[in-house]
Structure formats: structure tokens, C-alpha cells
Amino acid sequence: MRVFLFLDYDGTLVPIAGTPDRAVPPPELLRLLRRLVGRDGLRLAVVSGRDLEDLRALLPMPGLYLAAGHGALIQAPGAPPRVLTRVDRARLDRLTRETRALVAGESGFLVEPKAFSLAFHYRLADPARVEPVLAAFTALREEHCPPPDWELIPGRKVVEVRPAGVNKGTAVQHLLAAWPGAYPVYLGDDVTDEDAFRALSGRGLTILVADAPRPTAARQRLTRAGALALLHRLADEGPAALTKCMV
Ligand SMILES: [Mg+2]
Q: What is the CATH number of domain 89-163?
């Protein structure tokens, strides 16, 4: 049995942090991922909204597949990165500048420009300021990065503007196509992971990582601790570990 294991990063492998730069992987997580990468019959991809350079710095290990920018860019080990979308940088840069100006007098909002998108975090903001500032941000997004070429993705205390048409589902399909016959297993916690759950509908094991049930296209749900326990079993036993959780 060949297993292609796809893992989201933030909220799945590490807890959501106040700001993204604090979500650093602990040494035991890096050890676990290295063991998974070294397993026969198993490929491991981290599928994230983060930039490629960011993922490489967080997860320095040969043999790891990466899908960055919500699937805008994929990289197989030893191969050059492959861009799956184009982005109108000028529009995204204008939105970034005006969003920075919007929150210049505010505190707790974080403007995070990425290679293929703009993330706007409000986790640390005064709750009373969130609604008016998000309304103003939505107006800026409508002006500079409107649909249907762009889409606005709600996340966990973050909204993100990205080019339409590329997502974690398309990235997963690209990676799977390069390893025919592999059984896909996908673990993720966020709304952007739902694209991958739908893309894998009927052909693999999809697991929502969440403490409480919620509407999802995933087949199963695990807590983050449960998800890490499954990864440890996969690292110990290889793909055979899955036969127990597929019943
Ligand atoms: Mg996540």
C-alpha cells in the first residue's frame, strides 16, 4: 500500500499562535515528520497557506513535499518549484499599502503580504474594533482585488485575499497525479482544507482536526492530539497503521 499523507501546518501540526511567526515547530514534531518522510511506501506533503520560503525554514528536511500559498506553488523534493497560478502583484501591493494605512492608528491587526496573497489577521485586536475595520478592509478588497478574479477566504481570526481558481484541492490533485495508485490521507483544520476534503471525496481518508464537530466534507474528525497520535502510529508502523482507522 502506498500512502500520500497531506498535512496542513497551522492548527493541525502546531497550535494557532497569536502571530504566525510564533508557530514554530517543536523538536519532537520535526523528529516525527522526519520519521514519516523516511517511511517506505509513504510520501509526506505539508499543504499550507504560508509562503514556500517560510515552510522551508520551518520544516528543514529533505524528502518533504510542499504545497505553499494555499496550493499556488508546489515543490517535490529535488525539483524546482512549480507555480500553479499567476498573481497580479500590482493589485495585491496596492491592497497591502492601503490596508497598512487603514490600520496605522489601530493595534492588534497584522497585515501579512505573501507571495500569492494578502492575509489580514485580527486575533490580537480589540473585539470592538474588528467589525468596523473588517468592513473597511472589505471595501478596499472590492476596489483593488474584486471577484471573480480574486476571492476572500475567511480563516481563524484572519481573512485572506488570493487569486481565484487555485486552492489546496488543486495542489493535492497535482501531487497525487505524480504518484499513481497512492491512497491519499489528508488532515486539516481550516476552511481552506475543505477544498482538499472535497477534491479527495470518495478516494481517500480525509480528517478534520477539530475539538468539536462542525459541518465538513471530511470523512472523520480527530482532535489535534488524536491527529498527532495517528501520525505517530504511521511513523511506527507505516501505511499498515491505517487499516485500523479505516474500519
Ligand atoms: Mg490550518
A: 3.30.70.1020
